[in-house]
Specification:
Layout: H1 2-22, H2 25-51, H3 59-84, H4 90-101, H5 103-107
Helix pairs in contact: 1-2, 1-4, 2-3, 2-4
Length: 117
């Protein structure tokens, strides 16, 4: 899980650099805010679950609590981003959010072709 959190931040900063070069600072900051609004709660969730690792009896409840906390923090950070930085470009913001939130599907899950010869 910690690899996922680190990978999210690395990909987010690399894409922000690309957007800064191509479209400028407002798009790069919007991408960073969108990605950070999901990456920060993910990092907190990972740290919380690592804290509960020595207590296997709390694993189920800890996971539900961590995911609930992640959803709530994501919503708060998304709304807060628009108040803190009013020049947000929504498409860049949404792209950062989607890339960070779906990175696990793109990098870590393997799709196999069933029925191929």
């Amino acid at each position: 899980m910690i690899k996922l959190a680190i990978t999210q931040w690395v990909v987010l900063f690399l894409l922000a650099i690309v957007l800064y070069v191509v479209w400028g600072v407002h798009h790069a900051v919007s991408l960073l805010l969108g990605g950070a609004s999901y990456a920060i709660p993910t990092l907190i969730s990972v740290l919380f679950l690592n804290f509960l690792k020595p207590y296997p009896a709390l694993a189920g409840g800890g996971f539900v609590l961590a995911e609930s906390l992640k959803i709530l923090l994501s919503l708060i950070l998304m709304i807060g981003s628009f108040f803190v930085y009013p020049n947000v470009y929504f498409l860049s913001f949404f792209t950062g959010l989607l890339i960070v939130s779906h990175l696990i599907f793109l990098l870590f899950l393997k799709v196999y072709r069933y029925g191929s010869k």
